[in-house]
Amino acid sequence: MTDADRPRSTDADGTESGPSLAPLMGATYVVAGIAHFLVPERFAEAVPPSFPSPVGLVYLSGIAEIVLGIGVTIPRTRRPSAWGIVALLVAVFPANVHLARSDTLSDLVPDRLVGPARLAALIRLPFQGVLIGWALRYARADEAAATPRSEG
Questions:
Q1: Summary count for the chain: helices (H), strands (E)
Q2: Is this model's pTM higher than 0.90 or not?
Q3: How far apart are CA 77 and CA 47, in angstroms?
Q4: How far out from the chain centre does Cα 58 lie?
Q5: What is the pLDDT of residue 68?
Q6: Cα(107)–Cα(131) distance, integer angstroms
Q7: Three-state secondary structure along 113-149?
Q8: Residue 16: beta bridge partners?
Q9: How far apart, in whole angstroms, are the C-alpha atoms of residue 26 and residue 73?
């Protein structure tokens, strides 16, 4: 594959900025989505108790991650898929907060790893904003490129 054949990334101002990371983003979400089906009970532990059908929500979010992960790798569906990823990340944020604040981690990892797991769960909270920003880069890129610029 030559450089000309590689997917390119478009910045918000419509200029190309090098190889696209959309395939990496897509693969990340597909792998995470598949994990939801391999160990659904583990993911269900993160769902706040006030939410209905935790395992059902895990399957639903897993399907969404797989579909949106595939969609973000395809230029034609990249923008709506990226908006879907933004919505998904906002939707699962309560589960991340619940996991960071509850004693659920004690049931999910060995005792010696509870401290590091709690730290990772706490770091995940602001990192969610980074993931949303990454998705917004693709959600808005096509929009900026399609918007005619006024000259003058």
A1: 6, 2
A2: no
A3: 29
A4: 14
A5: 98
A6: 27
A7: HHHHHHHHHHHHHHHHHHHHHHHHHHHHHHHHHHCCC
A8: 10
A9: 6
Burial (CB < 10 A; 0-12, 13-18, 19+), residue 20, is buried
Q: Name the token pair of 62.
A: 């897993």
105: left (phi over 0), alpha (psi -120 to 50) or beta: alpha
In order of 70, 80, 86, 149, the CA distances from 14 in angstroms are 23, 17, 20, 10
Residues of the chain with pLDDT under 70: 1-18, 142-152
Give the pLDDT confidence score for residue 8 in this predicted structure: 53
Looking at the chain, how many residues does it have? 152
Residue 114: per-residue pLDDT: 87
Place of tokens 């969404």: 64
- CB atoms closer than 10 angstroms to residue 45: 18
Query: What are the CA-CA distances from residue 109 to residues 45, 65, 122 (Å)?
Result: 12, 24, 15
Helices (H), 3-53: 22-38, 40-44
Token pair 């096509």 is at which residue?
142
**What residue type is assigned to position 137 of the chain?**
R
